Amino acid sequence: MPDREKAVLSEFVGTFALIFIGAGSIVANTLTQGAVGITGIALAHGLTIAVMVSAVGHISGGHFNPAVTVGFLATRRISAAMAAMYIGAQLLGAVVAGYTLKVIVPPEIAVASNLGATTLHPQIGVAAGLLTEAVLTFLLVFVIFGTAVHPQGPRGVAGFAIGMTVALDVLMGGPWTGASMNPARTLGPASATFLWENHWVYWIGPMLGGTVAAGFYHFVLIKGKIQGS
Predict the structure, then answer these.
(1) Phi and psi (nearest 5°) for 34?
(2) What residues contact 30, with CB distance under 8 A and at least 6 apart?
(3) Is residue 116 left, alpha or beta, with left meaning phi > 0 and alpha meaning psi from -120 to 50?
(4) What is the pTM of this model?
(5) pLDDT digits (tens, 9 = 90+) for 22-72
(6) What is the DSSP string of 145-157?
(7) Strand ranges inside 87-141, DSSP E
(8) Which of 98, 110, 148, 207 could bridge across to 188 with cysteines, CB 3.0–4.6 Å?
């Protein structure tokens, strides 16, 4: 199989795993009446990212997130054609994961948990939700560039660092916005439950935050270091 197809397939599998386990942990929390808790949900998301980045990061880069891919595109680390294939694979993996959860989860639990769909807390407005998602994604992409992209970054621990950033973001933002940081993460359960309220927030916020983080790290921290060496 050509390397390009291997990379695209890896993005599909990694994104599927994130939504199946991450959103699935929210379903499990409902099933167990809160036994999983926010810490368990955060770890489910973070550990999935950590192990999948470690498993296929050397094949595809381990994006699993259109916001990450767009950040790489903005800094010319991926071609437009490849970015489109990555994003297509990520979205498809997310939708397949959402419908897989719908098939295996009892209907009453699916309704009670919304299959792990990300929604804004009633006490947080759309603007605050947008800013929250942008900041959380900024931090995620910042760590990705610092560990997996920077020429002198500690790439041996990149998977762990990226996964723990996701977990930390979920611990803070989970109760407020669901801490998606990822349009695919939101699309998967939404497509299976038809919950589209404020869906655009989970596209614009992560895309904005991820692109700013990628640009800042690439043009200021990496380029600045090279020029100043």
Answers:
(1) 95, 5
(2) 109, 112, 113
(3) left
(4) 0.95
(5) 999 999 999 999 999 999 999 999 999 999 999 999 999 999 999 999 999
(6) IIIIISTTS-GGG
(7) none
(8) 98
